[in-house]
Design goal:
377 residues, alpha+beta, Peroxisomal Thiolase, Chain A, domain 1, 2 domains, 12 helices, 15 strands, 32% helix, globular
Amino acid sequence: MNEVYINKIAKFLPNAPIGNDEMEAYLGKINDRESKARRIVLRNNGIRTRYYALSKDGEPTHTNAQLTAEAVYGLFDERVQASDVELLSCGTSSPDYLMPSHAVMVHGELGNRNMEVNSAAGNCCAGMNALKFGYLSVKSGNTKNAVCTGSERMSSWMLADHFGKEVESLKELEEQPIIAFNKDFLRWMLSDGAAAVLLENEPQGELPLRVEWMEGYSYAHELPVCMYAGGDKLASGVLKSFSDYHSEEWLIQSIFAVKQDTKLLDKYILPKGVESMQQAMNKHGITPNDIDYLLPHVSSHYFVDGLYEGFANAGIEIDRSKWFMNLKDVGNVGAGSVYLMLEELVRSGKLKKGQHIMLCVPESARFTYAYAYLTVC
């Protein structure tokens, strides 16, 4: 089996950073009213700026595929060009289409050569699943290299216009025309952007990162759906697909809006994160002393103290000085967040040979967790 190295990492963040007070100028106001949830959510999540692939009048400036392709272009130089890539593996939770898949659309944007492509669906773990596919391909010798990406373009899903029919329906029923918190909540949480890594079977560059191992854990066998889009939860807790609704209900009930059960999120996201982290570390025989940098993807700073305490109570306390995050400035870019953290850490100049990095990504959709352990070479 080959060793696998991250030899280069690149990112693309669209347009200028957007402050908290500017968000509704881009996303619009539902029912022409300021959101009551916005200030509460922003106070808890601690995000100060984020990026949208939108103009200020709500018009798209990039597709998800274009964002991803721009990040991939940043990997190429005189040594490695687009025509050298043997595998493209892309993860996102906000593809531009139900079909074709996200990766083939990115491949179409690149227009480089005939090659293998892989699309990883899901939510935040989609970026890690894309990375793992590339890692296993290079490790097994199936390919000598792979480009792996994580990206999101959630802003276009959160535009106020998408909730207009639901508001009109509520008015007709003489009900309060306020969108439910499980939909409004996520309008102030999610951001756009993309990042990409180049995997190769030999180290190249100043400080290549060797991928030692990757692990993934799903708790869907015991826990219900928490975050979803393209469906709605029935009173029984069963998720009903958009394809089983009448088409007029898609707009009236905002079926395609991204929704989250915040009670389930609060109850399970940290305990299962601690449990899976402990399982991964035990499997590979590492301790907190073997981690120099922890890159935890969290959707909100609200969870940081609880995650630290959960780790400490489980005997895997990782000193806060080792935690590296950029949520405040970049926002929650879902499947792309861990790539963006890693890119910023590499670019910071802090890394030294022999250090170890742990990537830690939770996904609340039905509670999935992914981990990667890297060595600076």
